[in-house]
Amino acid sequence: MIFEVLRQLPLASASVWFLLALFQVYRDRWHTWSESFFLFACFFAGVYGLSDWLLFNTTTLFGPLNTGAAHAAAVAGFASIALADLFFLLFSFVYVDRMRPAYWAFAVAATGLLVLVGTVMIQDVIPPTSGGLFLPVFNPVALAVYLVYVLAYGITGVWNLSRVYRIVHRQSAALARRAGGLVVAFTLVLLFGTFTNGYLGMIKNTQIPPPFSSLLLVIAAVAAYTLYPGSRERLSTAIRHFMARRYEIKAAFLTFQDGTLIASKAKPGESGIDQDIFSATLDVIQNFMRTSFPMLRGTSLRTIEHGDYRILIERGRRCYLTVVLKGEENDQLRRQMRDELLAFEATNAAILRGWRGVPAEASGADTLLQKLSEPAELFAR
Hints:
This protein has 381 residues and is an alpha+beta fold. It folds into 2 domains: 2-233, Rhodopsin 7-helix transmembrane proteins (Rhopdopsin 7-helix transmembrane proteins); 246-373, 2-Layer Sandwich (Beta-Lactamase), CATH 3.30.450.70.
């Protein structure tokens, strides 16, 4: 009975992770680096669970002698957990910082590991006896490299999550408990999963399905509770408060897609910015890029940098929002810009569909720009 449950549980784990990935897309949470990395981490965690389920059930699905299917499932499982580990690490870095070119070195290392997994790590797959499991035969050196990679990336990712806990602990006790729960869950699953799978592999087990893919179900549940709470307090708000110390917003502009300026707000003392000229010039630059470089058609300009200053652009369906800041941008600010822009467009849907170029007809524009300058309050509990 327990054997059968453990053999089928990875499919439940995979389903939850795939649902989390679909939920990310449904909620329009895939436009920033951190959102994309979390989306891919969810997807490959789901692929890992599905691969383990196929490996555990190869005998039933493909026959007791189909070593080819078992080998493919084993390779897919090890490759997908390596990719899930990579994207989890990148997500944990970018969530509390910003995307840096140096982080791609982790992806380069992961690519080398995938080559190792697909070529020499799994040398053979032994068919089961007495209704047991297929047993992969590993190259010991390659397996050791793989385990070092998984542990190093996993432990570093957990350390970054502990930074999230320390940040939110200063602002909200309730959020700190959620973040702490995420750290504990990841740590326990990483330790228990790695050691149980490693031990079962060392003794050449063919009777007990290794539980790591099943344990990821716990991570999925805790991640969903932490990142998608029902209350108004969110980790992203706390992180945005923390990250706001790294930049200073100088001005913000809300513009219709035809270049009409709907509203603008400049920080006191920044009177040198001519709001109408700025908006019109920005529209000319974007049109120039699309006209001069055909490969850019269908895309839009997102960032302009000049020294310490950055111009961030987020596009909605009919409008775009531009922020001029000094300092470092981050994903949380990008996400706030997009959320506020989409909310504005939803409120003014009828007016924007029949836009006549009269800014006074649109409601909530000034409130939108004000929110960017004054982060929402986060009450400690």
